[in-house]
Amino acid sequence: MATSTREKIIQLGDDLLRRQGFNAFSYADISKPLQIKNAAVHYHFPSKQDLAFAIAQWHKDIFDRFSQKMATKEPKDRLKTFLNFYHSIHLSEKVDIISAFATDWYSLRPNVQTEVQEFTELVIEWLTELIQEGLDLGQFRKIQNTRTTALRVLSSIFASTQLVRITSDQDFTRVKNSILEELLN
Amino acid sequence: MATSTREKIIQLGDDLLRRQGFNAFSYADISKPLQIKNAAVHYHFPSKQDLAFAIAQWHKDIFDRFSQKMATKEPKDRLKTFLNFYHSIHLSEKVDIISAFATDWYSLRPNVQTEVQEFTELVIEWLTELIQEGLDLGQFRKIQNTRTTALRVLSSIFASTQLVRITSDQDFTRVKNSILEELLN
DNA sequence: TAATTTACTTATTTACTAGTAGGTTTACAA
DNA sequence: TTGTAAACCTACTAGTAAATAAGTAAATTA
User: Fold this and answer.
1) pLDDT digits (tens, 9 = 90+) for B10-56
2) Residues within 8 A of B (CB atoms), A 29-88 only
């Protein structure tokens, strides 16, 4: 199954958004590598905000499939997979999609903001449930309120993808391991 | 002592950088409110990168003064002041200067990157020392390696200033308190 | 007092930016 | 075979970006 142009635009847009930021890339940055014209991008996504919306939607879809695939695994492994996923983000010099959108929050149209909010809530809820299950099964150690713990895991990990751009690669691994140590019994 | 135009440009630039991102504001956004011409901004800062450099330097100066003023206080109070400082950032709809620079990292000139790196290392070291002192005095609880703890405090708190743009104000306070609870004996 | 420097302004350039109008090709359906 | 719609392209507009050149008024220095 060949990837459609529309799909390619979304993927490249996502890449640029998370590597450079929403206001730092242009339609030309998309059309050139794909060897199509600027107007072709506008054909699929009339405005840049429409593209942003599609990217947010795309992430919701991906996360949906991810969480379904993970549903059968136990909390500990789910958490590890989640953290490893962020590790790969960091290695590709990108940042997390949530923080990418957060940075450019005030340049996003309301419907894009709503989409991002829904995606974020999805992730937080998924993490909250994961932690609750981990606690119930005795795999995790109780620290605080589960949502707070979820928020701290999420913010720690995604801040790290940013912070290590400035400091060093080692610091990411350090934080990642510390999250695991903190939670695991 | 009246604030010089140069100083005003830096302050407004900092504000815009942290509210909208480096690539989302223009020289016009600075010249208009200050009621000067675009070229006047270029007089003080020939290129936008020069402005970015000055903003990074400015933060180093501020942090220097801050840490000197805090030197006599005890670790617990220093940490609280630090967290409250970030709370005020969050309330003003800005993000932390480190994450603002991190987001636009790849659009920064090498000398700006170096300046930001130095500032970040300053903050991490300050936090690391604070934690070490707190441990020595028995005010803090040992969790991990002190640098790791410092990294986690920093990343948790600054990710929160971004995350709460998307979720809710409450979530910031939640994270802030959890950091304190985790460390304090 | 003359020379110089600081802190600007006016006016302009070059290079993009997102976005659009209208024409063309291709594929598929009636 | 004709009609139609999807997926482009060519060519363009209007606006904005950073940056610069040249000039000026006021303050500072020699």
Assistant:
1) 999 999 999 999 999 999 999 999 999 999 999 999 999 999 999 99
2) none
A69 versus B182: the higher-pLDDT residue is A69
Q: How far is B139 from chain A (nearest CA, A)?
A: 19
Q: B156: Cβ–Cβ under 8 A, 6 or more apart, which residues?
A: A152, A155, A156, A159, B175, B179
| DSSP helix/strand/coil, B149 | helix
pLDDT at A2 (0 to 100): 67
Is the predicted pLDDT of residue B185 greater than 80, yes or no? no
Q: Which residues contact A164 (CB under 8 A, 6 or more apart)?
A: A90, A171, A172
Distance CA B149, CA B142 (A): 9
Say which amino acid occupies B44: H
pLDDT interval class at A93 (50, 70, 90): confident
> Concatenated DSSP letters for B7-48?
HHHHHHHHHHHHHH-GGG--HHHHHHHHT--HHHHHHH-SSH
Nearest CA in chain B to A166: B117
Is the minimum distance from the CB of A73 to strand D below 7 Å?
Answer: no
What are chain B's domains? Answer: 5-183 (1.10.357.10)
Residue B99 CB in 7 A reach of strand D:
no
User: Which residues of chain B lie closer than 8 angstroms to A147, CB-CB?
Assistant: 174
Residue A185 has pLDDT above 80, yes or no: no
Residue numbers in A near B152 (CB within 8 A): 156, 175, 178
